[in-house]
Structure formats: C-alpha cells, structure tokens
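At this stage, I wrote out one protein's amino acid sequence and its backbone structure tokens, and that material follows here:
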Amino acid sequence: IDGVLVATLLLAVATTAVTANSRILMTVQDPNGGTPAFHYVTSRIAGTSFTVQGVALDTSIVAWLIVEPAA
C-alpha cells in the first residue's frame, strides 16, 4: 500500500493497511517549494491510521509504503 501526503508538523494518515508491527517507509517525492526535512512515524493504530511527525514550513510531498515483517 502506498500513498502521498503533504508533510506538516503532525499528520494522521488514515489507512486500514497498518498493523502494530508495520514498517512504514517514507521518501520525499517533491520538495514542493519548501525545504525537505526529516519525517518519522510517531504512532500506529492497527487497522485505522499512522501518524507522521514533520517540521514547520516543510511542504514536501512524501510517499509512503507499508510492509509487514516476516512472521
């Protein structure tokens, strides 16, 4: 599952694909006129959403990909 988000200070991404063990990979697709910064996942709610932390004034378009670790 993948998607694109525009980073802000804190953003909840709604997706039923996320689990408590999901690995969520993110990469900047377009700096969108801003200054790309470090983005990271702060929380996961299985079957509902995950939250991404960004920085103020970063308007980058960020793609994400969810993968599940091997059992």
User: Anything to note?
Assistant: The mean pLDDT is 83. The radius of gyration is 12 Å.
